[in-house]
Amino acid sequence: MKRLILCAAAAALMSACSSMPTGEAAAVATAAMDQPAPSAAEYTRMAAASDLYEIQSSQLVMQSANADLRRFAGMMVEHHTMTTAALTRAAQAAGMTPPAPALDTRKADMIRQLQSAQGAARDSLYMQQQVMAHQEALTLHTSYSRNGDTPELKTAATAAVPIVARHYNEITAMQRSGGGGHAGH
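Now predict its structure.
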């Protein structure tokens, strides 16, 4: 029953995005395929921290950014809330007690930098951070989906890959256009 629930959750998450990374995300995902996966506990901790950073940083930008970045930030909060819930369910189904999401020192520093910046400087910093954070997240989820050792977490990682790839492609397109253009869905 747990596996059925996990599969349904993964299918729901994947339905919003294509299943294989495309665009600039494809190169990141391809490079990550042969990287060793972290342990199940480390993957869970890292993925939860990544989602928490995405949610918190995006909530900051939703208050002050241009329309395209506000839309993107809203999507980050929605999607990363869903991937956190899927990760929690997967960890529980695997018999793990998932840790409460917590920012690592670097991501906490990134949040502080965003809090200090204002206006166009905040928008630019947010885009720079999002590119880097999504590249890291895509590498993490791709490597675990390919090489992880816990089936339930591999399912969650596999479902996260197209979502994170979509985000990576959108934010890199926005960054290239100077943040004012509308990235495709």
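Helices lie at 2-15, 23-32, 40-62, 67-93, 105-116, 119-147, 151-176.
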